[in-house]
Amino acid sequence: MPKAKVNAINLYYKVHGQGEPIIMIMGFASSGGGWILQRRAFEKYFQVITFDNRGVGKSDKPSGPYSIRMMAEDTAGLMDHLGIQKAHILGVSMGGYIAQELAINYPERVNKLVLGCTYARQDDSGGHTPEYYRGMGLAEGCPADELRKIPIVKVLRAEFPLAFNSRLYRICTFPFTGIYARRMATGGIAAQFQAIVGHDTLERLKMIQAPTLVIAGTADRIIKPSSSDVLAEMIPRARLVKIEGGAHSVFIGKSKRFNKEVLDFLREP
């Protein structure tokens, strides 16, 4: 079981394929195993590195507080451990927040950047959807302090049904939502959520130097699709792709289109 000692914790990681490295950063409460549909497609062309963020999976789960910048430093530390000076970076959802921080604070280490179903700041133009807030019994745009008080079980119960839009998926998974939420409601997941609440890179996006692809589904029910417009407008020379009908987990539900867009972008000269 490969683990890297990074920032006083152990990060579990996997390496597949050969070529230019691409580091893939998963979202909230999810392990690196969630990249399986991308890993199989990308390892034909790249060296693919997946890992479990602190607080989840087989990585250490220290008590909080966590921050998005802390997790970006974890990613840079993993690169150091693997001897990778520079890599393509792909992050989705919370992984997209981490990828933004990495590109802002370590520009020399990012070759190309892909930001999927993510945002820069919670405000009228970007951030979580009204449906997301309703799921937790809150008003849209409520103060961060209110959001931080929500029990992590309630957060997970609100998020799970919104991640996919397929009716079949919702019917099959709904009976197990409560079980999944209780099982995953650990201190590490709670610390990840606290880090998410504090995320804000909007005023610093102009510092991103890497060629950037912003990609999102038009039917995301967790993060406003307009968040991707904000990112693409604020990041110099960013390219925007919206996948029609794509849910928050667009990289799974629309994996063929998602993978094609990412691969085309990464393989351009």
Task: Describe this structure in a few short sentences.
The chain is an alpha/beta fold and 269 residues long. The protein is 39% helix and 17% strand.
Structure write-up:
The protein is α/β, with parallel strands linked by helices and 269 residues long. The protein has a single domain, classed as Alpha/Beta hydrolase fold, catalytic domain (Rossmann fold, 3-Layer(aba) Sandwich), CATH 3.40.50. It is 39% helix and 17% strand. It contains twelve helices and eight strands. The protein has helices at 36-42, 68-82, 94-105, 130-135, 144-148, 152-159, 167-173, 177-184, 187-197, 226-234, 250-253, 255-267; strands at 3-6, 9-16, 21-25, 47-51, 87-92, 110-116, 212-217, 239-243. Strands 1-2-4-3-5-6-7-8 form an eight-stranded mixed sheet, sandwiched between helices. A hairpin with a 2-residue loop joins β1 (3-6) and β2 (9-16). α2 packs across α3 (94-105).
Task: Write the SSE topology.
Blueprint: E1 3-6, E2 9-16, E3 21-25, H1 36-42, E4 47-51, H2 68-82, E5 87-92, H3 94-105, E6 110-116, H4 130-135, H5 144-148, H6 152-159, H7 167-173, H8 177-184, H9 187-197, E7 212-217, H10 226-234, E8 239-243, H11 250-253, H12 255-267
Parallel strand pairs: 3-4, 3-5, 5-6, 6-7, 7-8
Antiparallel strand pairs: 1-2, 2-4
Helix pairs in contact: 2-3, 6-8
